[in-house]
Amino acid sequence: QVQLQESGPGLVQPSQTLFLTCAVSGGSLTSTDYFFTWIRQAPGKGLEWVGGIGATGTTSYSPSLESRTSISRDTSTNRITLQLTSVTPEDTAVYYCGRGPENSWGQGTQVTVSS
To answer: d(Cα 6, Cα 64) in Å, to the nearest integer?
Structure first.
């Protein structure tokens, strides 16, 4: 059974770059049966898709975040990284890493953007 564990800095200052990591165990990042996704949930708001990465490394991003977002992977350590540049307080949210299509999710990591 796949397990996903997100990790990150917790607190980020405005205009900085956010880096989040998703450690994947019990599953391969290169299996063509699956894809990996980042979503987030801001306080009082619904879930928002951030982007994803497929078995071949192909990425896709939310149009509203695409200019600031990059998702990459390290197959040697089985980790996926989310990079979000020029963060603002509106990027404050719980960020989740997941695997599809079965919708396996990590517990999420809180990110607060504040000076």
So the answer is: 22
DSSP readout, 25-68? ESS-SS-TT-EEEEEEE-TTS-EEEEEEE-TTS-EEE-TTTGGG
Q: Residues 16-31: pLDDT tens digits? A: 999 999 999 998 998 8
Q: Is the dihedral of CA 62, 83, 37, 94 positive or negative?
A: negative
Q: How far apart are CA 100 and CA 97, in angstroms?
A: 10
3-class secondary structure, 96:
strand
Q: Which tokens is 57 given?
A: 């490394």
Amino acid letter at 19?
Answer: F
